[in-house]
Design goal:
The chain is built from 5 helices and 4 strands, in the order E-E-H-H-H-E-E-H-H. By secondary structure, the chain is an alpha+beta fold. The two termini are 40 Å apart.
Amino acid sequence: LPFTNIFISGEEFDFKENSGIHSIGAQQNFYLPKVNSTQQNLYQQQASLATNALKLTEQEIAYQTTLAFYDLVFQKQKQNYLGDLTELYDDFVKVNQERFNAGSIGKLPLLTAQDQLKLAVWKKEMANQDLNISNNSFRNWLRSENEVDVDLEKLPMPAEIEKKSFENHPMVQFQNQNSEVAKAQIEVQKAQLLPQLQTGLQLQMVNGTAPFFGYQVGMNIPLFKKSQNKKIEAAKIQVQVQESKKETILQQLEMERTKITMQLEKQEVAMEYLEKEILPSVRSRQEFAKAAFRAGQATALEYLQSLDQGIQYEITYLDMLKEYHFLKTQLNYLGVGK
């Protein structure tokens, strides 16, 4: 309802005598039912817009939480790799210590082995700190004050990705609702051209005698419509703007999906080659070098090169697998069907 008008008035009165008509009254205008219905519809559309904005925020939180989850699994797996490397270097030091005690090697190879072990321990400690940082980030996204962990010990292997429609994406739904709000604004502006019912009630004192009562009933009619028609036109243009924004968003989402899909395909090709062609050979050579070194058939330098090369390829593959899951997560959230 419009504001209620409370007023005091006087008519035909004389300051010297207690004469004339003195009134205290209230005046209230009423919208026609169609005006009220258009206002209610606008409020409902605005409430739905706020709900869609909340969904958009929730989607971003879910997206960031998923990335934090994969990063935590990555850090756990990386720490396990470096833990295995530390054990290999520890064994390397023990073999060199035995050979030094037996007098078959000098001090330098033993010192080199000990330095390599220290370096491996340091890398493991740095990886542990990275794991703590990832765990803290994941806990923050979950809004948990307690320490959290994940059951997954290894990042999942690549799998087929389902292509989803953009219509369910919260950003598209949010923009759709912007259009609905703009459409509701048109009806509200049109309703302003409808007349208003005007009513009033007065309590009066006439020439010192009270009470008397007065009333009024009328209508407010818009005589000049040019300004309001401009507002209606502006509201219609706003609908077109919102529809254009939606098309732009859909185009951007499609371009982003194409870009990420190409990056994923490139990542899968590189990972498949690394997994099937390089890693088996590196792992086999590493086992052979370990056995050959313990049997005295390989030098310390050859064994160290084998260890370093092995862990380098393992970490490279793990980095690529994490990046794959980051890209996959980004692609999944472009067409959210949740």
